Amino acid sequence: xxxxxxxxxxxxxVIYFLLMDLGLMKLQGVPSLIYHP
Amino acid sequence: xxxxxxxxxxxxxxxxxxxxxALIAGGYGIVSLPFAGVASAAExxxxxxxxxxxxxxxEAKAEGEKKVYPPAPKLTxxxxxxxxxxxxxxxxxxxxxxxxxFAAFVLAVPIFVLIIEAIGMGTKDERYDKxxxxxxxxxxxxxxxxxxxxxxxxxxxxxxxxDLIRYMASLFSRSMLAYAFLFFAESASLYIYYYGWHWLEGxxxxxxxxxxxxxxxxxxxxxxxxxxxxxxxxMSPNGVxxxxxxxxGSEWAVIHNFLWNPLNLHRVVANIAYGxxxxxxxxxxxxxxxxxxxxxxxxxxxxxTANMIAIGGxxxxxxxxxxxxxxxxxxxxxxxxxxxGGVFAxxxxxxxxxxxxxxxxxxxYLWCGMNRSEGAVRYxxxxxWIAAAIVGCFLVWFTPHTLxxxxxxxxALGGPYHKYLGPLGIMPAKNTAVNIMIILTxxxxxxxxxxxxxxxxxxxxxxxxxxxxxxxxxxxxxxxxGVYYGYFTNTVYKVAxxxxxxxxxxxxxxxxxxxxxxxxxGAKEVAPLHWGxxxxxxxxxxxxxxxxxxxxMGLMGYIRSGIRQHWHVNSIMRDNSIDAFTPTIxxxxxxxxIAAMIFMAIVIFIFWLSNISSxxxxx
Lengths: 37, 619
Hints:
The structure holds 2 protein chains of 2 kinds. Chain A is an all-alpha fold.
């Protein structure tokens, strides 16, 4: 397993999970990913 | 009943028992486990009127005139028959639990038998067919015992809780009759499926056999759905007047109550996991008692397959459980708080220990299974890290929030919560721990699968890197969601964050499986897989899985029933029997343990019967 592939895959995974979190939180009516008290 | 010693007459008798039992059976769990309260005798509605529509003025009903149904009966302690030497609640409790365990087993086994049979047909590998046949063979004796327990439960309910049963039968009259007739269809399809296994072999006949299996599963699932509706009605009644409990006329409304579908999903998934675990125990029993290498290889493979089925059910099970719990809260906050924040909360700690045991057993079995191939040496060095992480999650998973403390201990601790461990007692920590446990179990499975293989596709390095990144980032994402939203935001964020946590876990399972499937297409075998070459201790992990599942189901079943507290039917029909109190946790655990021991003794008897049925006469 080459390090370069792994880093690139990590970046892709970060984007995937971030978009997933954003979408699912929005769907549940949470205004933003960052909490503003 | 495939045993030669069982006669056809016994089968007929069993069917009759089924019919009788089915008239009202499945109402398990409708006797509450509550505290007493005595209703005024003057208020008591005579049970004779229950279930019969009250005629409108002038007695003779005009056509199209709406029927008016009587209210739910209000009982006094005197309305509950007593028989010397019997405690009605304990009897019904144990019998209902035994019925449920066996029913879960016999409903689940045909589901995966059908799938394995279809795989055998598709791959033309006779081993699958042989294994599927052996699976269904084990469940045949269990089927009779399920029916016997169903009959016993029905008669126990009729004897000890006649008014409650009459009220339930008045609401579910059609579905109870349908249940009885469907049992005939279930029995007929099961017997044809089993006895016709070798008769319907090859070509078109095999298709006919598979179709019968499909019918068997359809009928079995339908039966379970009907029985589930009776149980969930007692928790979240619908289709009746909320003030009086009088039937409003639509049986579908009564069936389709608030908790029906969440329980349906939970039971289907749990049954598959449970069925897999019991069959796994059977395979372990046979493995340990086998003397030849061929037999050991066969039962090792059978145990492995059963364990895979159990894992397949176990991984999504916590999510189905969460949905059911969420819906319980949605229906009644009071019920939800009783469930997880009140008297039953400590049972959830026991549940957490048992679920942790399940995960550890499943992983341990997979790690032992790596012995089957020399190729696994590449991965064995990683096992200790996976084990450490799973144990860490397990510890978080069962850390209690509120401790049972003496005054001195409270003073020494500086309050009811431990400074560092206290925060681990709340749900965000539990959600995080269980999701990581599931991901790590899946990692063990992934490593096991590739133990004897090496990918030959040109993009293997990229594929492995992508898989590693998905595993890593999913865990990081789950931890961030759990820690940030769980401890630094409000409840809205906290609850919402559990959904992307679950989806992160599912993403790992789905995405890495897709990558694995393509990456290991045409893979090279680095070392052969030797079925049967596993240590005996791995088989004890299979036994542990079955026992933990059984005990867990019993304890959680008690909670599900007990959260109704002092009601036979929540807020509609009060339990006024002398046993209408919530027992202590220790007492409840003892009853469930006794029931689990009876169940296990019967299961061992079934395994033994299966053993002697395959032995040839010495002469």
